[in-house]
Amino acid sequence: MTDLGTARATATGLRVSTQRLVHIYRSEGHEVAALSGVDLEVGAGEMVGLLGPSGAGKSTLLSLLAGVFRPSAGKVFVGPVELSAARDRQLDELRALEVSLMLQGAGRNLLPYFTPLENVRFAQGVARQSGKDLPEPEEVLAGVGLVAEAERPLSELSPGHLQLAALAVAMAPRPGLLLADEPTSQLEHRARDLVLERMAALNRELGTTVVLVTHDPDVAAFLPRTITIRDGRVGGEGRSGEEYAVVTPDGFLPLPLHVRDELLPGTLVRFHLLEDGSYTLLREEGGTDA
Ligand SMILES: Nc1ncnc2c1ncn2[C@@H]1O[C@H](COP(=O)(O)OP(=O)(O)OP(=O)(O)O)[C@@H](O)[C@H]1O
């Protein structure tokens, strides 16, 4: 029995954490630092959104959490497994049994010549062979609300139903962690809300940890917690619509963008403790409140 098998017995959702995660893409003649020290903590069974501008490193982070490739430096824990140190076999097993990655665009997650039912059955193959206790494909499809569409050709499905089929495929091996790259980006509002609600219901009912990338403010507002990636690092967190700056484990505090425009490099600031235990930030030049 592997470490993952033990984890499954105690919890459905997997805890995810990263420590000073760095990823550098190397191509001929140049290097791109996509992630430059990400410290992240997502509890077992949480549903969180990754936000941030284009090129911030969100998809890279998702791929590292999925064990698609290994980080240049730092650590990634998915459940009890530290991915950067895991053997290839352990990573294969993790991807087949415990971590599902939904790529952007429903079609990239589905075999086009299979029905939704056949897609789900196919997606369960390895996990079933390994002895994992899985629901029948019909039940998986019912879980995302695709019953009448189960045996229809994909070409007859609406974009929303295709995305629900992709969600069913991702959930077919009953993973402990669902990673989704922009799962609602190509959908109109009704279909978007339906996909999001079904995802939230699976998170609630099965306890699966969900991490999804989004650019959509409405999706972000729906999620209990969001993490903003900026310049390859955690730039802030949102809780129920409120934005917070997050102190890093080594004591750094990334300034929110609108404040960064005010506080130029080299500005001296002071933290002033108030009677109620909160702090104000004082800018030293002229002593103006920041
Ligand atoms: N295979 C690659 N080779 C070289 N550079 C890459 C590769 N993939 C991504 N990058 C670069 O790494 C940085 C982070 O890219 P990433 O796709 O992770 O960002 P993102 O936040 O997901 O962006 P988007 O929202 O546009 O998808 C960018 O500068 C990007 O150009």
UniProtKB/TrEMBL annotation:
<dbReference type="GO" id="GO:0005524">
    <property type="term" value="F:ATP binding"/>
</dbReference>
<keyword id="KW-0067">ATP-binding</keyword>
<feature type="domain" description="ABC transporter">
    <location>
        <begin position="19"/>
        <end position="256"/>
    </location>
</feature>
<dbReference type="Pfam" id="PF00005">
    <property type="entry name" value="ABC_tran"/>
</dbReference>
<dbReference type="InterPro" id="IPR003439">
    <property type="entry name" value="ABC_transporter-like_ATP-bd"/>
</dbReference>
<keyword id="KW-0547">Nucleotide-binding</keyword>
<protein>
    <submittedName>
        <fullName>ABC-type lipoprotein export system ATPase subunit</fullName>
    </submittedName>
</protein>
<dbReference type="InterPro" id="IPR003593">
    <property type="entry name" value="AAA+_ATPase"/>
</dbReference>
<dbReference type="GO" id="GO:0022857">
    <property type="term" value="F:transmembrane transporter activity"/>
</dbReference>
<dbReference type="InterPro" id="IPR027417">
    <property type="entry name" value="P-loop_NTPase"/>
</dbReference>
<dbReference type="GO" id="GO:0016887">
    <property type="term" value="F:ATP hydrolysis activity"/>
</dbReference>
<dbReference type="InterPro" id="IPR015854">
    <property type="entry name" value="ABC_transpr_LolD-like"/>
</dbReference>
<dbReference type="GO" id="GO:0005886">
    <property type="term" value="C:plasma membrane"/>
</dbReference>
<keyword id="KW-0449">Lipoprotein</keyword>
